[in-house]
């Protein structure tokens, strides 16, 4: 038995979610986004469960090297691309695909041509996100320059990123798409726009390649829905146990700063789970926690290693009883809402102390 915080991963759920991606985008290839340690789920384990994906995408060169050296033979795209000649050399050496989004990168490609080396490049166009990408007015220059690079395979892929696709009432996505289509019209090249929200809410953004991230992990990209209502299955569940149960009298306070005061005599449970494990410190009083499968409210402040729950509704609860912090019966999206954040940050924030089983 594991004592302390642990996370359980459901490989079958990953496969189910990938199949759901394919059902939404039956004509597209799937570039599974597994950056940031597969959104906190564990890079290599996720990759082996997602063996049916057509390609993978990570943010940084280091992540791609880790994947390649672990034996992944599929295409791996580096979404942030490279910033130095050394990183470019690594991209060539490890046969990685790269996004190109600046003139400096094109310069590096020209100045560091490796004889015989050919790399697959995605040209990123900034259609309104104002993060990475060439402005639309610079697209044609960048496209021609890239096509003139000896090291770049043809055709160059064309990519943009959607800034607000999780808001289905905002037509910004349609405007981004229209701009992308206008700028790239007539170019014979693979295209890629859709993230999870695009895939689920904006079918017009489907193109040759889709780039789902969060939905692969069973989590909704929308703030007003949980993944299970979209047909997704949660991949991660987070668990621990009660390590103490005690009685509290009226007027006593619980935890740092005494921020929770007992108004009715009760029993509280101490759970071995805190922000040192990645549970959000800012989760508010009342955030649900499952003890023996039943919902009880968080009370007091979350501390580094522990948190406290009110066991008034669970008189049988005792030391050693199982606790679930999120999972199938307690959506991580709901916990994110109680912590005034998004579920992406919760799963990405699980710390190395947490055992994965
Ligand atoms: C360029 C790019 N494409 C796709 C994704 C996947 O997005 P999501 O996790 O919302 O599906 C991301 C993630 O932020 C990204 O940066």
Put the structure in a nutshell:
The protein is an alpha/beta fold and about 350 residues long.
- C-alpha geometry: elongated
Hetero compounds: pyridoxal-5'-phosphate
Low-confidence runs of at least 5 consecutive residues: none
Compute the number of helices: 11
Main beta sheet:
9 strands, parallel
Q: Write down the secondary-structure element order.
A: EHEHHEHEHEHEEHEHEHEEEEEEEEEHHE
Rg on CA atoms, Å: 23 Å
EC number: 5.1.1.1
Keywords: Isomerase, Pyridoxal phosphate
Organism: Crenothrix polyspora
InterPro entries: Ala_racemase, Ala_racemase/Decarboxylase_C, Ala_racemase_C, Ala_racemase_N, Ala_racemase_pyridoxalP-BS, PLP-binding_barrel
Structure description:
The protein has helices spanning 11-24, 35-39, 43-49, 61-69, 85-93, 103-111, 139-147, 172-184, 196-201, 332-338, 343-348; strands spanning 6-9, 29-33, 55-58, 75-78, 97-100, 121-126, 134-135, 157-159, 191-192, 209-210, 236-248, 253-254, 260-261, 266-271, 288-291, 294-299, 307-310, 322-326, 355-356. By secondary structure, the chain is α/β, with parallel strands linked by helices. The chain has two domains: 11-219, Alanine racemase (TIM Barrel, Alpha-Beta Barrel); 236-356, Lyase, Ornithine Decarboxylase, Chain A, domain 1 (Beta Barrel), CATH 2.40.37.10. The protein is elongated. The model has no long low-confidence stretch (mean pLDDT 97). Bound molecules: pyridoxal-5'-phosphate. Pyridoxal-5'-phosphate (PLP) binds next to helix 9. Residues 33, 79, 161, 195-197, 211-215, 221 line the site of pyridoxal-5'-phosphate (PLP). This is Alanine racemase. Catalyzes the interconversion of L-alanine and D-alanine. May also act on other amino acids. Its cofactor is pyridoxal 5'-phosphate.
């Amino acid at each position: 038995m594991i004592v302390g915080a642990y996370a359980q991963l459901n490989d079958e759920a990953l496969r189910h979610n990938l199949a759901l991606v394919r059902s939404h985008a039956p004509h597209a290839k799937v570039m599974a986004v597994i950056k940031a340690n597969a959104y906190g789920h564990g890079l290599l384990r996720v990759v082996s469960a997602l063996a049916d994906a057509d390609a993978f995408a990570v943010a940084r060169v280091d992540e791609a090297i880790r994947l390649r050296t672990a034996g992944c033979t599929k295409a791996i795209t580096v979404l942030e691309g490279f910033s130095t000649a050394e990183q470019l050399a690594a991209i060539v050496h490890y046969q990685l695909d790269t996004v190109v989004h600046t003139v400096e990168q094109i310069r590096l490609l020209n100045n560091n041509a490796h004889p015989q080396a050919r790399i697959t490049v995605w040209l990123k166009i900034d259609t309104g996100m104002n993060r990475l990408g060439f402005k639309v007015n610079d697209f044609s220059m960048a496209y021609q320059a890239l096509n003139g690079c000896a090291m770049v395979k043809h055709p160059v892929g064309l990519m943009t990123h959607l800034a607000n696709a999780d808001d289905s009432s905002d037509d910004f996505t349609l405007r981004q798409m229209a701009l992308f289509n206008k700028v790239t019209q007539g170019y014979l090249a693979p295209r890629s726009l859709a993230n999870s929200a695009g895939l689920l809410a904006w079918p017009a953004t489907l193109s040759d390649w889709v780039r789902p991230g969060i939905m692969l992990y069973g989590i909704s990209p929308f703030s007003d829905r949980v993944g299970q209502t979209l047909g997704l299955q949660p991949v991660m569940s987070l668990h621990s146990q009660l390590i103490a149960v005690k009685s509290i009298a009226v007027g006593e306070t619980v935890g740092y700063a005494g921020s929770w005061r007992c108004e009715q005599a009760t029993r509280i449970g101490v759970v071995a789970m805190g922000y040192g494990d990645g549970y959000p410190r800012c989760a508010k009083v009342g955030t649900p926690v499952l003890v023996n499968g039943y919902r009880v409210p968080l009370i007091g402040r979350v501390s580094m290693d522990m948190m406290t729950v009110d066991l008034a509704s669970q008189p049988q609860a005792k030391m050693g009883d199982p606790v679930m912090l999120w999972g199938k019966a307690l959506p991580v999206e709901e916990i994110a809402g109680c912590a005034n954040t998004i579920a992406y940050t919760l799963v990405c924030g699980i710390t190395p102390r947490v055992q994965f089983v």
